[in-house]
Specification:
123 residues, mainly alpha, 3-stranded antiparallel β-sheet, 4 helices, 3 strands, flat, transmembrane helix, DnaJ_subfamily_B/C, Hsp70 protein binding, membrane, transmembrane
């Protein structure tokens, strides 16, 4: 029988180290990067354009094999690209309107783009 309490100390030390161990282990799990990005940046270097003219970039040179034009997956992906683009335009438009009200800017190019995109066909 141990009277100095060293077993309790070891258990407490292990419990205190557990979060650090979990963080280290989580670093080794594979991450799921998005399929596309709206701006070109590493590793998204292959440019594509949706039917409504929104540019997006993908990582894989096999993108057209994995997502053939007209396939359900490709249509769904392009719709998501357009939704993301629309959301970003709307956010930037709100900021421009706010800055315009404060007198910092006169023109609102993102609002113009947002309106043009909002009223273009296929939305």
């Amino acid at each position: 029988m141990c009277v100095d309490g060293s077993d309790g100390f070891n258990l407490r030390a292990l419990i205190q180290l557990l979060p650090v161990i979990l963080i280290i282990l989580l670093q080794f799990l594979p991450s799921s990067d998005p399929i596309y990005a709206l701006s070109r940046s590493y590793p998204y270097k292959y440019k594509f354009t949706t039917e409504r003219g929104v540019n997006f970039y993908v990582k894989s040179s096999k993108f057209e094999q994995d997502y053939p034009v007209g396939s359900v997956q490709r249509v769904r992906l392009e719709k998501q690209v357009e939704n993301d683009y629309f959301t970003i335009l709307a956010q930037n438009c709100r900021l421009e309107i706010q800055r315009q009200q404060w007198g910092f800017i006169k023109e609102t190019p993102h609002c113009d783009m947002w309106q043009k995109f909002q009223y273009s066909p296929a939305w």
